[in-house]
Structure formats: structure tokens, C-alpha cells
Structure prediction request, 89 residues.
Amino acid sequence: SPAYDSAVRDWARKDAGVAQVVRAVDDKRIAALTRLIQMYGYRGDEAVVRARIMYFHQVGYYALGMHESIQERLRLEPVYMKALIGFDI
Prediction:
């Protein structure tokens, strides 16, 4: 959940061991997104940077406490994906 993620990230700011675990999880998630983005033809640094932007966008969305309905998120999903991936999917 977003609240759990935020709480763990706050904890990680104060505990190096927790920070190491959070970083490892973040790295795995970014690696998974990189593989996904590579399926759309991006390679190397471009795939990694697009994956990071996508991940940081989602983490930031939760960190800022954004609130919108699922309907609104689904409506905007194609726009987000075009901005993050670079073309319509």
C-alpha cells in the first residue's frame, strides 16, 4: 500500500540497514521496468532512464499523496504511457 511504502521509506532515512533493503527492492523494480521498456525497442541507458523516470513518477505520486479516482487514472493512463514510453501503446 502507498502508506506502507511511505512509512518504510521514512524508516529507511533513519536506518542504514533498512535503506539497503529499500534500495535493493527499488533496484529490482527498476530492473523489471527496464526489461518491460526493452520490449518496446529501447536499449541501454535509454531503457534504464525511462524505467527510472517511470518508477520515480510512481513513488512520487504516492509520496505527494495524490488522490484521484481509479477511473481518472485509467483515463489518463494512455497519456502517462505516451509521456513515459515515448509513443502510444
The mean pLDDT is 94.
